[in-house]
Amino acid sequence: MQDTRTPVIVAVATMVVNVALSLILVQFLSHGGLALATSIAVTLEALTLLYIARRRLGGLGEQRLFSSVVKTSIAAVLMGVVVIWFAGYLALYLDSFNLPQLANRLLFVGASILVGAASYLAFSFILRSEELMQVRGMLATRLRRDSRH
């Protein structure tokens, strides 16, 4: 497509939207307004670029894209449930370890991240996420190639 101008124009326009929304929403939601304004602007930018690409390319395989979004969303929601459960469970027992506060926090965050990543991968595997299967295939190819050398 060789068009670098359109994405820049869209990015500048959404930056203006972001600033305007930030100025408005910060009055009502404090720093949460900044986060909401950024989320709205980035979503608007992504949808605009998606629309332009779809129009120029004559489609983007919407069924595959929709299927991927649904599977990713389900895996993310289930991961969130697991992490919330795990974090609540871990918080009950972490204080009994008598670790310094920084160590407690690092252990809490690190363990929650590991459980979140593992559960997301597991749910993605169960749902047969196309992207996960592609990564798995690339890793298998890479490992076979590396083992030959």
Structure characterization notes:
The protein is built from five helices and no strands. It has two domains: about 1-60; about 60-149, no CATH class. The two termini are about 40 Å apart. Helix 3 packs antiparallel against helix 4 (about 100-125). The protein has about 150 residues and is mainly alpha-helical. It is flat, with a radius of gyration of 21 Å. The chain has helices at about 5-30, 30-55, 60-95, 100-125, 130-149.
List the helices and strands and how they pair.
Blueprint: H1 5-29, H2 31-57, H3 62-94, H4 101-126, H5 130-148
Helix pairs in contact: 1-2, 3-4
Mean pLDDT: 91
Q: Any idea what the radius of gyration is?
A: 21 Å
Query: How many strand elements?
Result: 0
Contiguous helical run count: 5
Task: Tell me, briefly, the overall form.
Answer: flat
| Helix-strand string | HHHHH
Q: Poorly predicted ranges (pLDDT <50, ≥5 residues)?
A: none
**What gap, in angstroms, lies between the N and C termini?**
38 Å
Largest beta-sheet characterization: none
Helix- and strand-based class?
A: mainly alpha
> Helicity, in percent?
over 70%
**Tally of domains:** 2
What is the beta-strand fraction? under 5%
